[in-house]
Amino acid sequence: MEDIRSDGETLLSRLEGNSCPQCTAGTLERGTYKDNVAVVCPACETPQVQLWDVGSH
Ligand SMILES: [Zn+2]
């Protein structure tokens, strides 16, 4: 079983600050999407990564 929490943190850190692959106009930021921790593009509001069950324990 994968440890999504630690892997997810690494993934978020890695993606944060990257150009958005969807619209190429935005820069990915850490935020929330539907109450999940996510990396989202503020320009097109597309979540690139979502983590479930993070910070709820
Ligand atoms: Zn975008």
Characteristics of this structure?
57 residues; alpha+beta; three-stranded antiparallel beta sheet; 1 helix; globular; binds zinc ion; HVO_A0556-like; HVO_A0556 family zinc finger protein
Description of the molecule:
- The protein has 57 residues and is α+β, with helices and mostly antiparallel strands.
- It has one domain.
- The protein is built from one helix and three strands.
- The protein has one helix at 4-15, and strands at residues 29-33, 36-40, 47-51.
- The model has no long low-confidence stretch (mean pLDDT 86).
- Bound molecules: zinc ion.
Question: Helix and strand layout, with pairings?
Answer:
Elements lengths: L3 H12 L13 E5 L2 E5 L6 E5 L6
Antiparallel strand pairs: 1-2, 2-3
The structure holds zinc ion.
The description of the largest β-sheet is: 3 strands, antiparallel
SSE order in H/E notation? HEEE
Q: What is the C-alpha radius of gyration, as a whole number of Å?
A: 11 Å
What is the count of helical runs?
Answer: 1
Q: What structural class is derived from the secondary structure elements?
A: alpha+beta
Strand order of the largest sheet: 1-2-3
Shape: globular
Number of domains: 1
Residue ranges: pLDDT <50 for 5 or more in a row?
none
- Would you report the number of β strands? 3
Distance between the termini: 18 Å
Helix content: 10-25%
The proportion of residues in beta strands is 25-35%
